[in-house]
C-alpha cells in the first residue's frame, strides 16, 4: 500500500500543494535557515498567523549570523503577537549555537540537531526532513488525524499514538521525505480537515476506512482541556510627566522576558480608578480576564520603570498587554 499511497499523495501535491514562503517543492530546502525559522514559528501557531510575521522576520534577520548577533529584545519585538515567546528565545539561542558550535553550518545529524533549543522529537524529524530530505516521518496534528481516519482508529488519541506513529512510518516515502511531509500536511490542512473533510476530493480516499462513515469528524477522539478562569486587575499607571509604568517579566516562566503593566489577581492600589474596560486572553490552560485600572502617581513603584507613551512601541509586550495598550489609549495619550 505504501507505494501506491505515497504516489497518489505526491501526484496530488504536485498539482494542489500550497505555496508557502518557507516551502520548497522537489526535495530539501536549499536554505536550512528558512526551515529553522519556520519550524519554530509554526509550533502551536497556524500557518495563517505565521504568514503575517514570517517575511518581516526574515527581512530583518536574513541569515543565522544576523539572528545570532541581534539582541534578544529585538527578536521579541519581531515576534510580538505570535505568542509562546519561549520559542523566540529558543530560536535565538539555536542560531547562536549554530554560529558558535557549528561554525554557521547547519547540523544534519539527529544528535547534533538535538543540541539546538526548542527541538523535541517532532521538530527534529521535521527539520531533518525539510532541510535535508532525510528519511524522517513527521507526525503533527494533521498526520495524526489522517492516520486515525485512514485506519478508523476510534480510541482516544493518547491511546492510539504508538499505532499512529507506526502507521505513519510505514506509509512515508523516505526517498522523498520533504515533499511527502509537505504533502500530508497540506492534505490535512485543506482536504482532511477537522470539520467537513472533503472526501470526494481526497487523493487517498481509496485507502481510507472512514470515507463512507459518519463518525469521521469525531476522529481522532480528543480529551477536552479544562481551562481555569483567572480574573484580576491590570494597572495603567502614569506619573506627572505623562510617562507610563511598565516592568519586565523574569527570564523564566510564562511570557518570560516580555514587558507588561502591573497586574494581579487581587487589587494592588485602593486609590486606582476602575474603568469598565476589560481585556481577556485564552492561554493553554487559563481563561484570563483583567479589569483595566488607571492611576496617576508621584512615586515610582519599586516594581518597574516609567517610559514615554511614544516609546512603548520599543518594548515587546504579550498579546494580552498589547490589548491593554489599545484599550487604554485614551488614558495613555491624554
Ligand atoms: S477519505 Fe476523507 S476521511 Fe479519509 S483521508 Fe480522505 S478526506 Fe480524510
List the helices and strands and how they pair.
Elements: H1 2-16, H2 32-42, H3 47-60, H4 64-69, H5 72-79, H6 86-101, H7 110-113, H8 121-132, H9 141-150, H10 157-171, H11 177-190, E1 228-238, E2 244-248, E3 259-260, E4 262-264, E5 273-282, E6 286-296, E7 305-307, H12 319-327, H13 329-332
Parallel strand pairs: 1-6
Antiparallel strand pairs: 1-4, 2-3, 2-7, 5-6
The structure holds iron/sulfur cluster.
Iron/sulfur cluster binds near residues 192 and 205.
Shape: globular
Write down the secondary-structure element order.
HHHHHHHHHHHEEEEEEEHH
Largest sheet: 4 strands, mixed
Q: Helical proportion?
A: 40-55%
Strand portion, in percent? 5-15%
CATH class of the largest domain: Mainly Alpha
Sequence of strands across the biggest β-sheet = 4-1-6-5
Q: How many structural domains are formed by the residues?
A: 2
How does this structure look, described?
- 41% of the residues lie in helices and 13% in strands.
- Strand 5 (273-282) and strand 6 (286-296) form a beta hairpin.
- The protein is globular.
- It has a four-stranded mixed β-sheet with strand order 4-1-6-5, covered by helices on one side. A three-stranded antiparallel β-sheet has the order 3-2-7, with no helix packed on it.
- The longest helix has 16 residues, at 86-101.
- It has 13 helices and seven strands.
- The chain has helices spanning 2-16, 32-42, 47-60, 64-69, 72-79, 86-101, 110-113, 121-132, 141-150, 157-171, 177-190, 319-327, 329-332, and strands spanning 228-238, 244-248, 259-260, 262-264, 273-282, 286-296, 305-307.
- The chain has 334 residues and is of the alpha+beta class.
- It folds into two domains: 2-218, Endonuclease III, domain 1, CATH 1.10.340; 228-332, Nucleoside Triphosphate Pyrophosphohydrolase (Alpha-Beta Complex), CATH 3.90.79.10.
- Iron/sulfur cluster (SF4) binds next to helix 9.
Amino acid at each position: 500500500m505504501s507505494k501506491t499511497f505515497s504516489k497518489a499523495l505526491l501526484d496530488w501535491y504536485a498539482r494542489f500543494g500550497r505555496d508557502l514562503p518557507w516551502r520548497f517543492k522537489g526535495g530539501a530546502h536549499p536554505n536550512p535557515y528558512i526551515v529553522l525559522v519556520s519550524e519554530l514559528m509554526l509550533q502551536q501557531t497556524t500557518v495563517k498567523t505565521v504568514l503575517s510575521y514570517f517575511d518581516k522576520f526574515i527581512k530583518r534577520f536574513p541569515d543565522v549570523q544576523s539572528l545570532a548577533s541581534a539582541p534578544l529584545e529585538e527578536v521579541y519585538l519581531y515576534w510580538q503577537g505570535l505568542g509562546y515567546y519561549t520559542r523566540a528565545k529558543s530560536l535565538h539561542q539555536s542560531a547562536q549555537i549554530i554560529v558558535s558550535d557549528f561554525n554557521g553550518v547547519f547540523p544534519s545529524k539527529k544528535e547534533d540537531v538535538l543540541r539546538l533549543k526548542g527541538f523535541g522529537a517532532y521538530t527534529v524529524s521535521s527539520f531533518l526532513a525539510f532541510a535535508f530530505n532525510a528519511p524522517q516521518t513527521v507526525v503533527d496534528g494533521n498526520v495524526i488525524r489522517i492516520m486515525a481516519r485512514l485506519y478508523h482508529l476510534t480510541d482516544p488519541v493518547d491511546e492510539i499514538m504508538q499505532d499512529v506513529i507506526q502507521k505513519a512510518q510505514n506509509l512515508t516515502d523516505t526517498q522523498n521525505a520533504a515533499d511527502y511531509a509537505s504533502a500530508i500536511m497540506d492534505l490535512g490542512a485543506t482536504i482532511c480537515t477537522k470539520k467537513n473533510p472533503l472526501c470526494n476530493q481526497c487523493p487517498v480516499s481509496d485507502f481510507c476506512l472512514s470515507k463512507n462513515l459518519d463518525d469521521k469528524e469525531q476522529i481522532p477522539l480528543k480529551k477536552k482541556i479544562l481551562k481555569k478562569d483567572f480574573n484580576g486587575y491590570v494597572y495603567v499607571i502614569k506619573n506627572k510627566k505623562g510617562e507610563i509604568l511598565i516592568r519586565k517579566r523574569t527570564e523564566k516562566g510564562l511570557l518570560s522576558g516580555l514587558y507588561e503593566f502591573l497586574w494581579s489577581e487581587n487589587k494592588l492600589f485602593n486609590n486606582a480608578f476602575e474603568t469598565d474596560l476589560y481585556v481577556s486572553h485564552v492561554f493553554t490552560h487559563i481563561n484570563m480576564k483583567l479589569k483595566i485600572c488607571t492611576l496617576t502617581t508621584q512615586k515610582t513603584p519599586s516594581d518597574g520603570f516609567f517610559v514615554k507613551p511614544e516609546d512603548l512601541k520599543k518594548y515587546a509586550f504579550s498579546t494580552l498587554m498589547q490589548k491593554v495598550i489599545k484599550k487604554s489609549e485614551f488614558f495613555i495619550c491624554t
